[in-house]
């Protein structure tokens, strides 16, 4: 399940709970495209809160979508306590033009402040 956050007009934010599915990824992609239709460049805030199941296909779909649209994404904040997700942000930083930062769940306020700068 995903919860959409209303952070700012040029910032798309989501909190993932329970499981991340292909349908969730498609909903995120639709929201990104919708936001890009009224903003040339956007920021992306992604928070994972104790997700039990992350479908690798859904995750890879999102990574490739980000690569395709990376010229239009300024910043990506990834908030998670999982070490492997934080490690992936290093590789993602290499794949996309956006500035990518990882934050722990305790640092979520710092992540929102960073994404808004």
TrEMBL record:
- Top-level taxon of the source organism: Bacteria
Any idea what this protein is called?
STAS/SEC14 domain-containing protein
Q: Write one Pfam family the protein is assigned to.
A: SpoIIAA-like
Query: Where do the coiled-coil regions begin and end?
Result: none
Gene3D superfamilies in the record: SpoIIaa-like domains
Q: Can you name the source organism?
A: Dokdonia sinensis
